[in-house]
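ok so I'm stuck.
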Amino acid sequence: DSPSRRTGSCLCGQISYEITGEPLFSALCHCVNCKKWSGTSFVWYAFVKSDHIRVAKGENLLKTYKDSATIRGNTVHRQFCSNCGCSLMVTFPKSPEMLGVPLGGLDEDVSKIWKPTEEVFCKGRLKWLPDMGCRCSETVPELDL
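replied:
not stuck anymore, here's the structure
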């Protein structure tokens, strides 16, 4: 059996990436910084091993914002396309073996095969969102965030 492969890209298509294998877990993040970074009410991330993602095209356009104003004070590196501004990846200096990929950037709809396993920073969760039926916490225990 070959591992699953999924592709994704930024809005302008100048950066593309490939994920190999299944996510370690997936989460909906309700923190203020993820909301501002994405421009949405929450972000649905797949957390994958760092060596399971490869930037296939446009790595020179990938820029990083070092976000140190996080809820717990841990720096998060938010990577985005310098051309279109699309949010692409989040890396964690405290946990370099793992990174988060916003699932809206994938080229296919994975909602039929991947479901959120947890929600994090739930104090920021919008009250009108339906219950997702998964664990809700104020941290990301797997990342010490």
